[in-house]
Amino acid sequence: MTRYFGPGCALRYHTQVQEGIGEAPMRRWEAGGVVPVMPPSLEHLDVLLLTFSTRRRVQQDGIAFQGQRYFDVALAEYVGEDVVVRYDPSNREEIAVYVPELPLANALEDVRERFVCRARCWEVGREGIRAQICQTLGREREASRALESLGQQVEEAYQRTAAHVPSNAALQIEQRDGADVPNLERLERVEEPESLRGLREYVGARLPPVDLPEVMLEVAQQTGFFSHFTHVSDSSAYVEDLPFP
């Protein structure tokens, strides 16, 4: 839809004379004097732009929506309650979550929902991050293609090594129990440079001390792996009021 609507809107609507203003919107904009009406906050902007909305019930592990699981720590307060989900169909990474409220006293305010948070789907987010990292590093996204490329590199390295065996003075082929065994001269130890030791100490000093439970809770918040474990005598592996999935 965006592919077909976008060019049509940009090339036809904005460049043709419109009856309501008596000129092309693009010419009107370039001439100046147009002050756009801005919403009072980003949450109000979401209500205006994210026209697709639905209601969902908040579970302990987040909100189930379109086959994905969305989570944010702010949802812990609303477990078991119904909320309004506003979303952009072209962006499956996050949804905007609102709590329905009574009409506000100010009649000019058209927003009758209180913003709670932007819940993210870490599975979808990881796919986007993986694609970005792979593109930055020049790697293949598909594991099979990456393994095929690595296998080719290993084969080329093996062929180069085999071709240089006759001219390698440090390598000798000995016979042991009827088999050819490579014998390399002992490599001398290379001392670490002072700069490397200083870098190791510098990085170690900047790493914050953290407890293992804190690491597990942070990973659980991003992955939701707690939901895949149950206690042997109960249906839940964690306390009900724990503000994590």
Structure description:
The structure is a single chain. The chain has 245 residues and is of the alpha+beta class. Strand 7 and strand 8 (179-184) form a beta hairpin. The strands form 3 sheets. A 4-stranded antiparallel sheet has the order 1-4-5-6, with helices on both faces. Strands 2-3 form a two-stranded antiparallel sheet. Among the domains are: 1-36, no CATH class; 38-139, no CATH class. The protein starts with a helix and ends in a 22-residue tail after the last helix. It is 37% helix and 20% strand. The longest helix has 22 residues, at 143-164. The chain has helices at residues 2-13, 25-31, 42-49, 122-137, 143-164, 194-206, 212-223; strands spanning 52-57, 63-65, 68-70, 82-88, 91-100, 113-120, 171-176, 179-184.
Mean pLDDT: 77
Number of helices: 7
Q: Which bin fits the share of residues in helices?
A: 25-40%
**Helix and strand sequence:** HHHEEEEEEHHEEHH
Features:
245 residues; two-stranded antiparallel sheet; 7 helices; 8 strands; elongated
